[in-house]
From TrEMBL:
<dbReference type="Pfam" id="PF18362">
    <property type="entry name" value="THB"/>
</dbReference>
<dbReference type="GO" id="GO:0031430">
    <property type="term" value="C:M band"/>
</dbReference>
<keyword id="KW-0677">Repeat</keyword>
<dbReference type="InterPro" id="IPR003598">
    <property type="entry name" value="Ig_sub2"/>
</dbReference>
<dbReference type="InterPro" id="IPR003599">
    <property type="entry name" value="Ig_sub"/>
</dbReference>
<dbReference type="InterPro" id="IPR050964">
    <property type="entry name" value="Striated_Muscle_Regulatory"/>
</dbReference>
<keyword id="KW-1015">Disulfide bond</keyword>
<dbReference type="InterPro" id="IPR036179">
    <property type="entry name" value="Ig-like_dom_sf"/>
</dbReference>
<dbReference type="GO" id="GO:0045214">
    <property type="term" value="P:sarcomere organization"/>
</dbReference>
<dbReference type="InterPro" id="IPR007110">
    <property type="entry name" value="Ig-like_dom"/>
</dbReference>
<dbReference type="InterPro" id="IPR013783">
    <property type="entry name" value="Ig-like_fold"/>
</dbReference>
<keyword id="KW-0393">Immunoglobulin domain</keyword>
<dbReference type="InterPro" id="IPR013098">
    <property type="entry name" value="Ig_I-set"/>
</dbReference>
<dbReference type="InterPro" id="IPR040849">
    <property type="entry name" value="MyBP-C_THB"/>
</dbReference>
<dbReference type="Pfam" id="PF07679">
    <property type="entry name" value="I-set"/>
</dbReference>
<protein>
    <submittedName>
        <fullName>Immunoglobulin like and fibronectin type III domain containing 1, tandem duplicate 2</fullName>
    </submittedName>
</protein>
<feature type="domain" description="Ig-like">
    <location>
        <begin position="425"/>
        <end position="514"/>
    </location>
</feature>
Length: 542
């Protein structure tokens, strides 16, 4: 929706403007905005959350405006001054503003507001936080209220016309309930306005949630599974078995299938609802929500860190009672990966030893004291990337060691030391890959190089060296060479190459980086859209 003026005043305050984003109201502080300046607006507003008690709840938003707006948060029922309970922060890379509520409690269920303000105006939007106490929805309304009981929950306002209505102060027209209950839910607010009922939205949201949901429990947040899909689940007992269940991603409704053949799927077993996402891609990251009819029941945030396996785990052979070690190298630091053995997640303990290097690039899994039951496929998972390999356990036929712990025996047939030469020229184990990225996000590119003596590595962009450019973060750890562009833009498009030099030779690999769209072009289109809409409004007013 384009910006349009609702009403004007000759003073310097209270010029109300409608945002392009539904649910956002803008107040302009000045009559005329200087060229190149703008009032604040939300490009992404916070959305309603339903979170289990004790979990981390957070709202996030993105704003626009020149000069850069100042962001503040508020709630209806109290202040946000406690720095332990409420954490406000800004992510400079993603340009996102967060309000985090660690260990959320039932008392923090409320309507929260986000304000974006600069010297030319202020934008405001709201989002509701619902908290599930223990494993059940907070009992705001224990029993299904009859219309007579629900009327007491609403503030009343008499709408006077000429001639005045013949009814008592605060009384609601009896026809209101008949019209409301026979209208589509999308028209509830209009019906309330028509009959003079105010403060309806927030109270009805909680009431309606309890009206359609009998019980909500066993909430499990989204996680990546061994088969490369992501799942989250919850138990919902519906008051009406015919109620519709909707899935949303970042506030947009997502269609799903019930046979497992789609991108998004629902597997319903009794009252258990298992949602899955297949063929994971970076674009699948976001906030997923489950609604029953118009009631938000559950929210879970899915984060995907772009990472690749530079060196994958390899097949390992071990005799009984020996230890077997799997090892992999990642393209950029990852604090903890998931190890899976025969489709079961593995944990540190007596049987398995899970370690990671100080730079968080090299991850290892040791299977201790191998037995025949340990053989099978093992998988390493980092984000949405994975690799797998077999563990083959060979029988120990030596009667002297049967049933006893043995150690690895390494036998290396080495030639005469004088004739041994381990030097080799540079070569790439893993070359660069073609990349495409949206503007404003960070972008990783990596490759793996070997050589003895250790080669000197130089990065180039369009034949210009980047090794001394502070706009790029370049690392070389154990031969894994990585470049990080913190905030990608159109100027970063082009050819990238890596040259590895040593006294024994030179190796080179290259790739092309494409930036989808242009920030400048996007702003140009938005401005053109705004000017066109303003002209249309002006003509309509004439």
């Amino acid at each position: 929706m384009h910006l349009q003026t609702i009403f004007f005043r000759t003073s310097t305050v209270a010029i109300k403007r409608r945002s392009r984003v539904p649910g956002v109201m803008i107040t302009q502080f000045v009559d005329e905005i200087p060229e190149g300046m703008s009032t604040p607006d939300f490009t992404r507003k916070p959305i309603a959350l339903t979170i289990q008690e004790g979990k981390l709840a957070f709202f996030k938003s993105m704003v626009s405006g020149v000069p850069k707006p100042n962001i503040t948060w508020a709630r209806n029922k109290g202040p946000l001054e406690d720095p332990v309970k409420y954490i406000s922060r800004y992510d400079e890379i993603m340009e996102e503003y967060f309000l985090e509520i660690p260990n959320v409690t039932a008392e923090q269920a409320d309507t929260y507001k986000c304000f974006a303000a600069n010297e030319y105006g202020r934008a405001v939007c709201t989002a509701t936080l619902n908290v599930i106490e223990g494993e059940k929805l907070i009992d705001l309304c224990p029993k299904r209220a009859a219309p007579e009981d629900f009327r007491k929950m609403l503030k009343r306002k008499v709408v006077r016309t000429k001639p005045p209505l013949k009814k008592k102060e605060g009384e609601i027209d009896p026809k209101f309930w008949e019209v409301l209950l026979s209208s589509p839910k999308k028209d509830y607010e209009n019906v309330c306005m028509e009959y003079g009922v105010t403060d309806f939205r927030n109270q009805f949201t909680d009431y309606y949630t309890l009206w359609v949901v009998e019980k909500l429990e066993n909430l499990k947040h989204i996680e990546v599974k061994a088969d490369g899909s992501a799942e989250f689940e919850l138990d919902i007992e519906l008051k009406n078995p015919n109620s519709q269940v909707f899935l949303f991603k970042d506030g947009v409704m997502v269609p799903y299938s019930d046979d497992g053949s789609g991108k998004h799927n629902l597997n319903k077993i009794g009252k258990k609802y298992i949602f899955s996402i297949n063929d994971l891609m970076p674009d699948d990251a976001g906030l997923y929500q489950v609604d029953v009819e118009d009631a938000n029941c559950f929210s879970t945030d899915f984060k995907i860190i772009p990472v690749e396996f530079v060196v994958k785990i390899q097949e390992v052979k071990a005799k009984e009672r020996e230890d077997a070690v799997f090892e992999c190298v990642l393209s950029h630091p990852f604090p903890k990966i998931v190890w899976i053995g025969k489709k079961i997640p593995l944990e540190q303990g007596d049987k398995f030893d899970i370690t990671v290097s100080e730079d968080h690039l090299i991850h290892s899994l040791k299977v201790k004291d191998c037995a025949q039951v340990d053989k099978g496929v093992y998988t390493a998972m980092a984000g949405i990337a994975s690799c797998n390999a077999w563990l083959i356990v060979e029988a120990d036929n030596d009667p002297n060691t049967r049933g006893k712990k043995t150690s690895h025996k390494f036998m290396l047939d080495m030639p005469d030391v004088k004739g041994l030469d381990l030097q080799c020229p540079p070569s790439f184990l893993l070359p660069l890959k073609i990349r495409t990225a949206p503007p404003g996000y960070e972008c990783y590119m990596s490759c793996a190089v070997r050589g003895d003596p250790k080669p000197h590595v130089t990065w180039y962009h369009n034949n210009v060296s980047l090794n001394t450019n502070t706009n790029y973060l370049i690392t070389n750890v154990c031969g894994v060479c990585t470049i990080l562009i913190l905030k990608i833009g159109p100027k970063d498009s082009g050819d990238y190459s890596v040259i590895a030099d040593s006294p024994l030779g030179r190796a080179e690999c290259s790739t092309k980086l494409t930036v989808r769209g242009s920030i400048a072009q996007s702003h140009h289109n938005q401005m053109l859209f705004f000017i066109t809409g303003t002209i249309c409004n002006y003509r309509n007013n004439l």
